[in-house]
Design a protein that fits this description.
Elements: H1 2-24, E1 43-51, E2 54-61, H2 77-82, E3 84-85, E4 91-92, H3 98-131
Antiparallel strand pairs: 1-2, 3-4
Helix pairs in contact: 1-3
Length: 132
């Protein structure tokens, strides 16, 4: 039960960061490759690790797609974030969106996690008091 509660609270906090990351992701007005999934639509949250008394939740671009004919924008997220050299010469400047989203929302995400944990613990205490 404890793990379920912690995961739920952390996923709530991750949602705050995920939403801001999707908002800040570049959204070109014209798709260079029709049929591709926009980078902003590829931002997901997931439990990355659970064990040994710790849980890690992450927000990141999804590299997978349900339809193998549709390419996910997540495959280029690191290139967009940090910039890259073109194979034919030149350099594409980075357009950071993940780091700024994290920096802008981490305190709010922590608050969301704390509120969820406090609410659930208070509810459980009340339930135990009624039973006991």
């Amino acid at each position: 039960m404890r793990d379920r509660l912690l995961v739920a609270a952390m996923m709530d906090g991750a949602e705050v960061i995920r939403q801001r990351t999707a908002e800040l992701a570049p959204k070109p007005s014209v798709r260079r490759h029709p049929g591709t999934k926009r980078l902003s639509d590829s931002i997901i949250k997931a439990v990355l690790f659970r064990g040994s008394g710790s849980i890690r939740v992450g927000v990141f671009p999804d590299y997978r797609t349900e339809n193998t004919k549709i390419k996910s924008g997540g495959k280029v997220a690191h290139l967009v974030e940090h910039g890259h050299k073109w194979w034919y010469g030149g350099f594409q400047e980075g357009k950071p969106f993940m780091a700024p989203a994290y920096d802008a929302t981490k305190q709010r995400a922590i608050q969301v996690i704390q509120n969820r944990l406090q609410k659930e613990v208070t509810r459980d205490v009340k339930r135990l008091n009624k039973e006991g």
